[in-house]
Design brief:
Aldehyde Oxidoreductase, domain 3; 3 domains; 18 helices; 7-stranded mixed β-sheet; about 800 residues; globular; EC 1.2.5.3; Aldehyde Oxidoreductase, domain 4; Aerobic carbon-monoxide dehydrogenase large subunit; 6-stranded mixed β-sheet
């Protein structure tokens, strides 16, 4: 039999093409096609202003300009606000932007006018001729200003509060008040952004002869963009195809749909009868796409002498920017995933989601979990410090135990289902982590470093990650007459290795060679119904669907082959694309089985002669049964009852420079549990990438707004990112596999694991090195230097 590929470190099949420069991105689509036009967008220079007048009279005089639109030029559904994608009863004041601003702008970078010209240079020059008269209004920037509500982002949203949501399991306030020990903490996480290699881009072509729109978009949800384009342009869904070519990173910012340009570009393509393209530049991405992370938390916790949490009461404020197209997903995840692997005696969480005159918030890798993990792990460290206990001991007494799964936290998760963990073994993960990082040996190492005048610290952080969120994904598996297997799923891909892991699943289930499987993702022509790539759901959702579709295909192949080989299906096996009867020499190629599955009238080659109308099946039966269809293929959908919950623990050893306050990573260790591993190498790649982004978010990256709402670091000259020299070149990784009972493969998601605990683990390690409480992240050397100065001043008093 063919060697099983599940759990094997198979090299990525995508890499050869990518490393040879053969990737094909949106900016490559129709780039040389004659007649292709280019679009550019005029964006607001103000964070908050009323639009008094827009004068475009001089624009069409520019040679090469074909169209200039403002909101007044849009009609019907295009003139209405963009959709609020995920409504929620608590989102009482949801607001979304228009494709082009109507009457008012609410953040720097909001789209005001749209120009299409022969090339981007002409389009940009035309933008300079547009004259906009503004009535500038006071902006609301940051959570303190939003809470103070001295000014309003939207006149009809009292107090700038878009939503307030409370969940409670038990009586947390009473439990805190009655506990032997109590602490209060105030914790802050600043805004950041994912800044993928490739920004947003869209190309559209309208075929008037058949009334069909083809859109290429750098998106994480091809089917969502398809539905939006059809609805806003008044087209039937079947008239729109959306194709996602290679995508240079998504990380959450490309899950929002539609972006204004994803509607304006197709609209222009139809109006002008020519292909139209738009690619944002880097500054546009900073000021007009999406950010995340910004939250302020107040924690009250009560605990016993062992450090066991008896009551936990958390209130936090979430900055969702000027609009809420993605609803309350991020703060809901924070509020529920904050609990991590622990079981507090009682838990209450209340959050307010606030409007500010800044770029809107959509999920960024981790999607609210880094903030929650930071809050819970800082709380655990504070308890340990208060009691004088080892930090691992306090965590251990609060863990959910392996025999307690499934474990219901008594809350409602982002998918509207119960927050019920499916499987895990947190004590085993902690034991692995302590050994991996050398936790028990660290005091001796610290003493050795101190003798050399060096400061070192160690930190750890634990997390649980809800993954595989529904509602569904589907897959189609088709065996060609050549024996090659074509697999398609509507899920998009942004470099995660889907073409490899899905091929592994099909090769295993169908019994074919890996190199004979070809995977297509993100093409609505191949799979018109899908949800998208986000929330660490690809392996769980599409992986399960691919597995089920391959199983259907295999069942049909065995049935057809059994008839041809005059055997029973249960006596057959498939290996390397050949169906054979066990214990005999009788066999048939899978490609020939594909020929037999489609009874044609005519033979086209030697294999096809076996499938003419004169030779197929029992003469007393129709060639194609009533409950069957021609072709060796299978389609299936997977829809989970609830999310799976992966988990993990990170530890880091850092050194802080006594003079410059720079932070150097000496060791980084990860223990990760995503259920059964499909491809350990790809999981480890996901962890490495996540850790890199986590280091960035903890030590370097932030969105720096001034009081006027101007983003001060909207370029890679100013937005501080780590280089390879700042990211640990060696990460020690160990895996734990506790299979999920919720899907046929026993898998859980892995895509966001590396980034979730980063703020928490670095805060803990720096605090351990310096002896100074770390309550705000990210932290820079200058901020650490200032904390040292304040401590010295207080000690001198």
């Amino acid at each position: 039999m063919t060697t099983r590929l599940m759990g094997t470190k198979v090299p990525r099949v995508e890499d050869d093409r990518m490393l040879r420069g053969r990737g094909r991105y949106v900016d490559d689509v129709l780039s040389q096609a004659p007649g292709t036009l280019h679009a550019a967008v005029l964006r607001s220079p103000h964070a908050h202003a009323r639009i008094v007048d827009i004068d475009v009279s001089g624009v069409l005089d520019v040679e090469g300009v074909h169209v200039v639109w403002t909101h007044d030029d849009l009609t019907g559904a295009m003139a209405e606000p963009l959709p609020l994608l995920i409504p929620h009863p608590a989102l009482t004041h949801g607001r979304t932007q228009h494709a082009l601003a109507r009457d008012e702008v609410n953040h720097v970078g909001e789209a005001i006018a749209f120009v299409v010209a022969d090339d981007r240079y002409v389009a940009e020059d035309a933008l300079d001729r547009i004259r906009v008269e503004y009535d500038v209004l006071p902006p609301v920037v940051g959570i303190p200003a939003a809470r103070a509500a001295g000014h309003l982002v939207h006149d009809d949203v009292p107090g700038n509060v878009g939503a307030r949501l409370e969940q409670e399991n038990g009586d947390a306030r009473s439990a805190v008040a009655a506990a032997p020990h109590r602490l209060e903490l105030d914790l802050t996480v600043e805004r950041s952004a994912c800044t993928p290699l490739e920004g947003r881009g869209v190309v559209a072509r309208w075929d008037p002869d058949v009334g069909r729109m083809t859109v290429w978009s750098s998106t994480q949800t091809a089917t969502g963009v398809r539905a939006a384009v059809a609805a806003k342009l008044g087209l039937d869904l079947g008239q729109v195809d959306v194709i996602t070519p290679d995508v240079g990173g998504g990380f959450g910012v490309k899950i929002n749909h539609p972006w204004p340009e994803e509607l304006l570009v197709p609209l222009a393509a139809r109006a002008l009868g020519r292909p139209v393209r738009f690619t944002e530049d880097r500054r546009e991405h900073f000021i007009s796409s999406a950010h995340e992370r910004g939250q302020v938390h107040h924690v009250e916790v009560g605990f016993d002498d062992e450090g066991r949490v008896l009551g936990l009461d958390v209130q936090f404020w979430h900055d969702h920017g000027a609009y809420t197209p993605y609803g309350l997903i991020v703060p809901i995840i924070t509020s529920t995933q904050l609990l991590g692997p622990y079981k507090p005696g009682a838990y209450r969480v209340v959050f307010e989601s606030l409007y500010t005159n800044t770029v809107m918030v959509t999920p960024y890798r981790g999607a609210g979990r880094p903030q929650g993990c930071y809050v819970m792990e800082r709380t655990m460290d504070a308890i340990a410090a208060h009691l004088g206990k080892d930090r691992t001991e306090v965590r251990a007494v609060n863990f959910i135990q392996p025999d307690e799964f499934p474990f219901d936290q008594g809350l409602v998760f982002q998918d509207g289902r119960e927050l019920e963990y499916d499987s895990g073994d947190y004590p085993a993960s902690l034991a692995k982590l302590k050994e991996l990082v050398g936790w028990d040996e660290f005091p001796a190492f610290r003493a050795e470093m101190a003798a050399q005048g060096r400061r070192v610290g160690i930190g750890l952080a634990c997390y649980v990650e809800g993954t595989g969120v529904g509602p569904y994904e589907g897959a189609h598996v088709h065996v060609e007459t050549s024996g090659k297997v074509k697999v398609s799923t509507g899920l998009t891909t942004q470099g995660q290795g889907h073409a490899t892991v899905f091929a592994q699943l099909v090769a295993d289930e169908l019994g074919v060679r890996l190199e004979d499987v070809e995977v297509t993702t993100g093409d609505t022509r191949r799979m018109p119904y899908a949800v998208g790539t986000f929330a660490s759901r690809a392996a769980v959702m599409s992986g399960s669907a691919v597995h089920l579709a391959a199983r259907r295909t295999k069942e049909k192949a065995l049935r057809i082959a059994a008839e041809a080989l005059e055997a029973e299906p249960e006596d057959l096996e498939i290996a390397d694309g050949v169906v054979s009867v066990r214990g005999t020499g009788a066999s048939i190629d899978l490609g020939t089985v594909a020929v037999l599955s489609n009874p044609l009238r005519y033979a086209f080659d030697e294999a096809s002669k076996a499938a003419t109308q004169f030779s197929v099946g029992d003469p007393g039966k129709p060639p194609v049964a009533e409950d069957d269809e021609p072709g060796l293929e299978g389609k299936d959908f997977y829809s989970p009852e609830r999310s799976t919950f992966a988990s993990g623990m990170h530890a880091v050893v850092v050194e802080t420079d006594p003079d410059t306050a720079e932070v150097t990573i000496l060791k980084y260790a990860v223990v990760h549990d995503c259920g059964r591993l499909i491809n350990p190498m790809i999981v480890e790649g996901q962890i490495h990438g996540g850790v890199a982004q986590g280091v960035a978010g903890a030590l370097y990256e932030r969105m720096a707004y001034d009081e006027a709402g101007q983003l001060l670091n909207a370029s890679f000259m100013d937005f501080l990112m780590p280089y390879v020299t700042e990211v640990p070149d060696g990460i020690d990784i160990d895996h734990l596999e506790t299979p999920s009972p919720l899907n046929p493969l026993g898998i859980k998601g892995a895509g966001e694991a590396g980034v979730i605990p980063s703020a928490a683990v670095f805060a803990a390690a720096i605090e351990d090195a310096e002896g100074i409480p770390i309550t705000a992240m990210p932290i820079s050397p200058s901020e650490l230097f200032e904390l040292r100065r304040r401590r010295a001043t207080e000690e001198d008093r």
